[in-house]
Amino acid sequence: MTLQQLKYAITVAQTGTITEAAEKLYISQPSLTNAIHELEKEMNIEIFTRTNKGIIVSKDGEDFLGYARQVLEQAEVLEDKYKGGGGGKKKFCISTQHYSFAVNAFVDLIKKYGQDEYDFSIRETQTYEIIEDVAKMNSELGIIFMDDFNDVVLNKILKSNDLEFHQLYSAKPHVFISRRHPLAGKQIITNEQLEAYPYLSYEQGEHNSFYFSEEIFSTYERKKNIRVRDRATLFNLLIGLNGYTVCSGIIDKKLNGKDIIAVPLADEKDMRIGYITHRKGMISRLGNTYIEALKKYLQ
């Protein structure tokens, strides 16, 4: 097995066809096909399933390619360290729930390591997809929260996927509302006071269970509910409809806007914010730098 073979396999998975991958890699189709066959034979695994419509990554192949990506990333780190920057583009990917502090930490990472060439990704997405991204090693880290309600279910899912949760911060619940909201002058807000206003939350697709909710108190019965996919829409509705959402209270005026404020919610329940990693993976230098940046914003 060679690094070149791993690169070939990942490129085929990315493009979905031998033809396109061969063009991208500047090699002939027969040579690429043979290289993939030799890799599968040596590793005793079927990475790709051949069908009439083309090739798809097998279940075993998804696991294998996750490890392959880590091997190539670590090889690039070595080349970068000992060849004086000759390791090509730095690559890093995280998946996260919709947190401004996760974006701020990502900005800090790029400012520190993005001077030359880089290929970084941040995915603000649904909770189940975050777990799936880290399980498949498409993302090195996943940023989520746990509480006394969801931790049993989520820890069971994490364990079944060989993942671990690392707590960074324990936050008291807050309400995000518009600065012009009728309750904006309150020092503390109760759930009863919020009953008349629309509740905004992030929809979780086919996994739209209480346990995957990004908001604490997901089981609390509310009369008016609006589900959204992105942070900008949620904040626009907070302002336009006098809506609210329940969150950690960590707010960034540059990203969230000066018209959004956080007010403590009258409840003692905590949100435990942290990151998930793969048990069989290694945290890279970029990953450790990102975690340290997160800690700075979560103090």
TrEMBL record:
Short name of one Pfam family for this protein?
LysR_substrate
- Does the keyword Protein biosynthesis feature in the UniProt annotation? no
List the SUPFAM superfamilies hit by this protein, alphabetically. Periplasmic binding protein-like II, Winged helix' DNA-binding domain
Q: Which family does it belong to?
A: Belongs to the LysR transcriptional regulatory family.
Against PANTHER family, the record matches this protein to: HCA OPERON TRANSCRIPTIONAL ACTIVATOR HCAR (PTHR30346:SF0), TRANSCRIPTIONAL DUAL REGULATOR HCAR-RELATED (PTHR30346)
Pinpoint the HTH lysR-type domain residues.
Answer: 1-58
State if Cytoplasm is listed as a keyword. no
Put simply, this protein is called LysR family transcriptional regulator
Assigned keywords, A-Z: DNA-binding, Transcription, Transcription regulation
Q: Which domain of life is it from?
A: Bacteria
